[in-house]
């Protein structure tokens, strides 16, 4: 299979490549992240408990973009950027590291290591890696979501927002709000990367290196599939991590099931898919650019390692000649010294 013929690279190398690709991709499409988050936390105006001076209500992706720029300027589209990039870098580094370790261990311990893991195994490996990554990185996601959904005059720095979460009703555990939903959502990257490996084997069977457009296509297709399946959980997770809507009168949600019930009661069943437009568009771009960049960075790692090995071997090859020259030079000096003394 194509996945098996890829150049060998260490888990650290794949993790660094994945993190680099994620940072680059998310930085490019970050405004879409702001928009989809705002759309997912808002509640319809028809709710009688809300007044017109509450949080702004956006009717579409373009409406959200234009109004955010009008209210906060262009910088409003990049609110919480530092925290978000820190989060995607750490999450993707952890994910690719654990995924590579788990996949390598499975293949090495398999009775038929020449065969690629089945789709079910790919999903399971992705789920394990995603769960481990979420445990360590979810606090950054909580803080970033708070920054993205805060009004311009209420927005604080990364550390100040984290302090605000800790000083809230949940204490330090507030930094892990939405953990259960996040653990359930590990099926998203599991579906994404499982589908990526399977589609690669189907569409580009036997290819060791993918062209940039091929990696982009695979990444986009796999992410679109994962997003459609998991969108209600994504909406619930954002609701858990942001401030509760005005209708809750300051009472935070206790579970993602409670968030989904609230959304269905106030906006109808279809609202669990709100924000799916920018979510899919962002996912297509991010995953496509991420996998395209990751493939290039991995190739750079392989070329760098080969260069270092070649250079090292060349240096070792020169060493015997240099040693013999040094020995001859020392012998000459010794002979001269003896002749001089005599």
UniProtKB/TrEMBL annotation:
Leader sequence segment: none
Its principal location?
mitochondrion
| Membrane topology of this protein | Multi-pass membrane protein
Q: Which InterPro entries match?
A: MCP (IPR002067), MCP_dom_sf (IPR023395), MCP_transmembrane (IPR018108), Mito/Peroxisomal_Carrier (IPR052217)
Which Gene Ontology cellular component terms are annotated?
A: mitochondrial inner membrane; peroxisomal membrane
Solcar repeat ranges, renumbered to this chain: 9-105, 117-202, 210-300
| Record PANTHER family | MITOCHONDRIAL THIAMINE PYROPHOSPHATE CARRIER 1-RELATED, PEROXISOMAL MEMBRANE PROTEIN PMP34-RELATED
What name does the UniProt record give this protein?
Peroxisomal adenine nucleotide transporter 1
Q: Which organism is it from?
A: Hirsutella minnesotensis 3608
């Amino acid at each position: 299979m194509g996945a098996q013929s890829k150049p060998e690279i260490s888990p650290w190398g794949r993790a660094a490549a994945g993190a680099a690709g994620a940072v680059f991709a998310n930085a490019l499409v970050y405004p879409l992240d702001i928009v989809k988050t705002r759309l997912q936390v808002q509640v319809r105006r028809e709710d009688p408990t809300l007044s017109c001076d509450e949080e702004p209500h956006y009717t579409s992706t373009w409406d959200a973009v234009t109004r955010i720029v009008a209210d906060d300027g262009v910088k409003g589209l990049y609110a919480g950027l530092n925290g978000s990039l820190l989060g995607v870098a750490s999450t993707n580094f952890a994910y690719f590291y654990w995924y590579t370790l788990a996949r390598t261990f499975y293949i090495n311990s398999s009775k038929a290591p020449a065969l690629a893991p089945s789709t079910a195994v790919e999903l399971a490996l992705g789920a394990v890696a995603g769960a481990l990554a979420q445990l360590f990185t979810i606090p950054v996601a909580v803080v970033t979501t708070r920054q993205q959904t805060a009004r311009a005059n209420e927005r604080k720095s990364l550390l100040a927002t984290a302090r605000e979460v800790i000083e809230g009703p949940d204490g330090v555990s507030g930094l892990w709000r939405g953990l259960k939903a996040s653990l359930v959502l590990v099926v998203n990257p599991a579906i994404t990367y499982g589908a990526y490996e399977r589609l690669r084997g189907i569409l580009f069977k036997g290819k060791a290196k993918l062209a940039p457009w091929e990696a982009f296509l695979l990444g986009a297709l796999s992410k679109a599939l994962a997003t459609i399946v998991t969108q209600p959980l994504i909406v619930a997770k954002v609701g858990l991590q942001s401030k509760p809507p005005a209708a809750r009168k300051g009472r935070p949600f206790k579970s993602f099931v409670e968030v989904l019930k609230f959304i269905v009661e106030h906006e109808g069943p279809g609202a669990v898919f709100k924000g799916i437009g920018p979510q899919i568009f962002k996912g297509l771009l991010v995953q496509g650019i991420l996998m395209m960049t990751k493939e290039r960075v991995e190739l750079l790692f392989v070329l760098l390692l080969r260069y270092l090995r070649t250079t090292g071997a060349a240096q070792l090859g020169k060493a015997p000649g240099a040693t013999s020259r040094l020995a001859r030079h020392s012998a000459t000096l010794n002979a001269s010294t003896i002749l001089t003394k005599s």
